[in-house]
Amino acid sequence: MKAPLFWSNSQDTPGWQAHLLAPLSALYARATARRVARSGYKAGVPVICIGNINAGGTGKTPTTIALVQRLIERGHTPHVVSRGYGGRLEGPVRVDERQHSADDVGDEPLLIAAFTPVWVAKNRAAGVRQAEAAGADVILLDDGMQNPSVAKDLTVIVVDAWRGFGNGRVIPGGPLREPVAAGMARGDILISIGDRRGQDRFESNWAGLVSVPRVEATLKPLPTGLEWRGQKVMAFAGIGHPEKFFQTLSGLGADLLRTEALKDHQPLSIPLMKRLEVEALALGAQMVTTEKDAVRLPRAFRMKVVTLPVRLEITDWSPIDDRLGRLGLD
Questions:
Q1: Which residues take part in binding ATP (predicted)?
Q2: How far apart are CA 134 and CA 126, in angstroms?
């Protein structure tokens, strides 16, 4: 689903569509409130949920990877449980990069599995039980803030700093899965991801509604060995907000001759990739994509497409470290 333009309006002027859809938004919010009020499985190890209030991509996967790395640095054995969006396997199944494809387990679990054990399970509680049995001393739920099947010990809310909470309205009148205040009441930490301009924008528009400690973070590209400045590029991305990826390439100095914004998690079929390859050859450009998209590439194209990896850089870890310490994860 492509987000309607009015979802990105300000909360002060949400648009006539949001007002018209207000009764449906109220019903959606009440349904979410009833659902999250239910109690779920209480694991024997700490469970950290990385979730969001917005529908769509906000940066949960790089946040999960950053927290995994932080926990490993502290001597812990984190496992990740994901529903495996886009994958066909019900699970619980441990992701094996040598055996599974994105069609099996989804693209995000394949990406995270390079850092730590990942379990795909449509039934998250069953996935958590398997992770416990396999020796995890802390479990990260990739998404699932609005899923009550597992009790959370720490909930990290992730938001795109520039977009914030859109027009502040709940689906279908806006981009929110639940009202900001309701989400904050169940959250423990908010991570806003964006550059300085984005952080300032979030501060001016939304800081008054943030009732939990807020941590600023940015996505930083990793070195690839390719000199980006002046490099002719045809970039494609099937992530929540492809334009952010294109902006990152531009910021590195790449010459973007063509961009293709795909749907989030869109399959990279052979016909699609052949079309992109022909266009890139005609332009004399290098095909470039994201890490998340790269795991969906057909085998024949994996050596033809350059991947630009990014990692989450957190300005100040102390609020997160403090909460981890309370859970015995120091």
A1: 54-61
A2: 12
* Token code pair at residue 320: 């997160």
The residue among 250, 327, 312 whose CA lies nearest residue 65 is 312
Would you say the C-alpha torsion 174, 175, 176, 179 has a positive or negative sign? Answer: negative
Mean pLDDT, consecutive 10-residue segments, the chain of 330 residues?
Answer: 82 90 95 92 96 87 95 96 90 91 90 95 95 96 91 96 93 95 95 94 93 95 88 91 90 94 89 95 95 91 93 94 94
The pLDDT of residue 249:
94
56 is in an annotated binding site: yes
Q: Would you say 59 is a known binding-site residue?
A: yes
Decide if 71 contacts 229 (C-beta within 8 A).
Answer: no
Q: Where are the domains of the chain?
A: 36-219+313-326, 232-308
57 marked ligand binding residue:
yes
Ligand-binding annotation for 325, yes or no, is no
CA distance 242 to 319: 30
Fold of 36-219+313-326: Rossmann fold (3.40.50)
Predicted confidence at residue 1, as pLDDT, reads 57
- Per the annotation, does 147 bind a ligand? no
58 labeled part of a ligand binding site: yes
